[in-house]
Specification:
single chain; about 160 residues; alpha+beta; Tetrahydropterin Synthase, Chain A; 2 domains; four-stranded antiparallel sheet; 5 helices
Length: about 160
């Protein structure tokens, strides 16, 4: 007859082996998933600042500027949260490349422009006037094309 101690040791050994097998399977799933993602993943429009679709003449939304948080000039700084986007045409490869290369410049323009106001001044400005000025500044640095219309999917003034 087995002793209680040897029976407990046997049970612990079975549990330990089951845990080891589980960890090996979990590791294989992670490694397999990573390899699959690297080999077969296609970038969607949400993942990429630019959707490089080849559909001729169809406009796409450029979201590469992203969401920006800008402090205001107030003594107790408020915050402006903005997500600017615009339509571009991916069949114009040269202009598309320029847009991607200018993304950092677009962000600096937004920060410099909106960061020069206080919360009260921003609240007095019409959103259309802000868009028009930023669009003018964007187009001033572009050489291979022009942005037609600027949109904000987020524009919040927190003060």
């Amino acid at each position: 007859m087995e002793s209680v101690q040897s029976r407990q040791l046997r049970i612990l050994l079975v549990v330990f082996r089951a845990l080891i097998i589980f960890l090996i399977i979990l590791g294989l799933v992670f490694v397999g998933g990573t390899i699959y993602a690297l080999l077969f993943h296609t970038t969607s429009q949400e993942d990429s600042p630019v959707n490089l679709s080849q559909e001729s003449g169809e406009g796409q939304i450029f979201t590469g500027i992203g969401r920006i948080r800008i402090p205001t000039t107030d003594p107790q700084p408020g915050m402006v949260v903005i997500f600017a986007l615009f339509v571009y045409y991916p069949n114009d490869k040269a202009f598309t490349e320029e847009l991607v290369l200018r993304t950092g410049d677009f962000r600096h323009i937004i920060v410099d422009y909106l960061g020069s106001f206080s919360v009260a001044e921003l609240q007095k400005l019409a959103e259309e006037d802000i868009k028009a000025e930023m669009l003018r500044r964007f187009n001033a640095i572009l050489r291979l094309g022009q942005i037609e219309t600027l949109y904000f999917s987020d524009f919040m003034i927190i003060g």
